[in-house]
Amino acid sequence: MSRIFWIAALIITNMWGLSACGGTPATQSPTDSPVAPAVELATVPTETSPAAPTVTPVTTAVAAAPMANLTEGCVTDYDPDVDYFPAKITISDSTGWEIEYANNYKVITVLNPWRDADLQFRYVLVQCGTPPPTDVHDAQVIETPINTIITMSTTQLPHLNELDLLDRLIGVDNFRFINTPAVVQKIEAGELVEIGGGGEVNVEQAIDLEPDLIMTYGVGNPENDAYPKLIEAGLKVVLNSEYMETSALGRAEWIKFTAAFFNQEAAATTVYDTIAERYNEIAAQARNLSDKPTVFTGAPFQGTWYMPGGNSYVAQLLADAGAAYLWADDESTGSQHLSFEAVFESAQDADFWLNTGSWQSLADGLAADERFAEFSAFQNGQVFNNNVRLNENGGNDYWETGVTNPHLVLADLLKIFHPELLPDHELYFYQQLEP
Q: Is the pLDDT of residue 57 over 80?
């Protein structure tokens, strides 16, 4: 494996440290670049934007009202008094988006697309076969349910898999880092097309696929963002900013965001409620523990140790697993940029060390820096890395399946810190590093 790939792999697998919240999505490099300029049609400046499309209050449906959201085809006999979305999304844990319902359309607003963004993104989802609202301002109008989609982050693939919608997937950004078995099968069968990502996105290829929707993300840097070029080409593009959430459940709840474009609100609610219930059941086992081992995360990247903030989703996961995170008192949601010396001063006697980048063994750590052997966790063999599920190209399923299924991550963490509470659990994403 080339030196360039190992550097990329370090960035990918060390995401717990590289900006724990407000960092870049899976398989993307971190950036602190300036905010991208506003793009007309889909972006709305926060301070100067006009009001959102007025959402007409849902009226009492007539006898012909549907019993469920229409997930196939279009309305053939439109009645403005009918509520075409009897199943509606309620957001409980995520804070980065909102949804409002009218009788025949819904308005989604992405509130925090990237760190320090001064833009919001608004989408009007109109039930196919019914008219859009008269004034949508700068929002994109998208007919639902969509039939075809291109996704540009591996984190979005489990959404389609859990919702049984992979038949709608026609393209992705890159094949190399994908782990979801059903998607790999589609790649091997020649059913998917790569369109590239970031600033190198192949717009012509995307146009040829004629997708109903492209789901991507933004980092606020026009050189690294694909969405401006895709919107300029006239394609329907939405930004998913799950990576900005400050809780693991908040990230997972973005499955409802994806579902709204397919009118699959009911299915997404069922899936998410099950995930949240399992997560909370596991967290409850650690809630009243008095013995909480100390823990720190990450490893230096190009001389800087990116330590997750105390209000990040990482810190919450560790707290929910019954650990005492050494930077829990920090108030940031992103990551602190620390020196080796600063981390060693606080963490030299820590009980556990997690998420060490690309390390497959303790020997890999010593090869990177012999000073790692001075940490007690290293000496005691209590170093665990979240990279046991890698594909042949280094794609880490932790950043794919794990984002939508945080209960699996939490179970691993509880097993590491308090193995007696989950005696039958086998580590799914984590491995204990051997010499």
A: no
